[in-house]
Design goal:
By secondary structure, the protein is an alpha+beta fold. Helices cover 35% and strands 23% of the residues.
């Protein structure tokens, strides 16, 4: 587990089995579907949650995104989204 912003998130996050991540063409974004509804995700959240497979570490998620977008310093943003996703029970 990793502590971020006083929250504990998994070191290898995985989508909660009650949610399904998919690209929604009508919304032009990734969404999380669940029995009671849908959560529209911004582009960054969609990119991060696509990598939450229960095997990939947070460090590797950050490295993958930094390489993909030719950027550095994404750790705080990834940690912030993962903390929020954990609080919302989107990831376990």
């Amino acid at each position: 587990m990793t502590t971020t912003n006083e929250h504990v998130t998994p070191t290898t996050p995985k989508l909660n089995r009650h949610f399904r991540l998919q690209w929604e063409e009508a919304q032009h974004c990734h969404v999380l579907l669940y029995p009671e509804g849908m959560v529209r995700l911004n582009a960054s959240a969609g990119e991060i949650l696509q990598l939450c497979d229960g095997l990939t570490t947070v460090d590797h998620i950050v490295a993958t995104l930094e390489q993909k977008f030719n950027a550095t310093g994404l750790r705080a943003d990834v940690d912030g989204l993962l903390a929020h996703a954990f609080e919302q029970n989107w990831i376990v």
